[in-house]
Amino acid sequence: MHPSLLAAALAALTVVHAAVPVPGTTGALGPAEIVQGNPASVTYNAILPNKNTTTIRGYVAGTSASNGTGVVFNINLFGFPSADLGPFIYHIHDQPVPADGNCTGTKAHLDPYIRGETPPCDNKDPANCQVGDLSGKHGNITSSPFQTTYLDLYLSTVQGPASFFGNRSIVIHSNNATRLTCANFTLIAGNSTITGGTAPVPTSSQSAYKGGAATKFVSIGAVLAGLVAFVL
Known about the structure:
By secondary structure, this protein is α+β, with helices and mostly antiparallel strands. 13% of the residues lie in helices and 24% in strands.
């Protein structure tokens, strides 16, 4: 190899300081932590509105687990349009539905650990999914009607923690992420102001985050091999 090309390769190595960051799937603030201490019998329910712009109806209800760890969700949805638009996906979004009913106003998914939407959630590793990505963690909507019940360990029914979902919204999407309908969660049972939830309160912006935040590293040898191969 020409000496000048070798020098260029070595200079490039100096710039990367022995490691090249590779995007990961863990949030900037780490994986989501399991929520404990949810007060008994607290239930929030989001009932989809009767609108002439969509045929989708039903509700998404979340109740504190009996042992206080996580939230049990009960999903009952029906009236989905053509299966060509599915599988349908659904998430808890950071903001409530505004008064005009525009689902765009719900902003991004609930993502207090700043994990981002890409790459897609791996349901075998729910702690490293967005907290609000219910379908990513528990499965897409693949039938109409659609009914399911599951425990989510990373959401809170206690006001205060960033994992609290009671002041937020549920949004139903087509398979291309178009927002089809949405509804706000409202308290229908229990007291969510009880102190004692042990969910962490990440210090973060709740805005949309593009891309993973964790960092993995590639060895110097791998970088050098790639640079040498490039200049040969």
